[in-house]
Amino acid sequence: MKLLSASILAAALLAGCGGMSKTSSAPDTPTRTADGVLIGPNGMTLYTFDRDAANSGKSACNGPCATNWPPLAAADGAKPMGPYTIVTRDDGKRQWAYKGWPLYYWTKDAKVGDRTGDGVNNVWKVARP
Q1: Following DSSP, what letter does each residue of 24-73 receive, concatenated?
Q2: Start-to-end Cα distance in the chain
Q3: Structure-model confidence comparison of residues 123 and 20, the more confident one
Q4: Is the distance from CB of 73 to CB of 59 less than 8 angstroms?
Q5: pTM for the whole thing?
């Protein structure tokens, strides 16, 4: 019996170690944090746009802008939670916002960890928690 209990305890401790990394998220949030920046479900860096008005419920990046800076889409059934809100875009689609700022990807980021959009035209910044 003691051997079985020790085996169960060891398995539980090892399972708990699987979540230890530089990436964190609260359950069911639309983003995670990695190395001090927000990342989307695909692991790519997220950005904010200085021309957006925080807490306006709108995005100022539409049309060609949204082609280069795709929005972090919110599913139809998604609901605001904590610092996350949802804005409705000009095309009627829904987009996640963090602390009132709509969130975007940058098409020129090629791999997880890239942050090549930070500082573009002095209006794009990596999103930080």
Answers
A1: E--TT-S-EEETTEEE-TTS-B-EEETTSPTTSS--S--THHHHHS-B-B
A2: 47
A3: 123
A4: no
A5: 0.80
- Structure-block tokens of residue 7: 């085996």
d(Cα 23, Cα 36) in Å, to the nearest integer?
A: 9
CA dist 97 and 52 (Å) reads 11
Q: Is the pLDDT of residue 20 over 70?
A: no
| 60-77: pLDDT as tens digits | 999 999 999 999 999 999
Could you tell me the sign of the dihedral formed by the alpha carbons of 39, 41, 65, 51, in that order? negative
- State how far the Cα of 78 lies from the Cα of 5, in Å rounded to an integer: 42
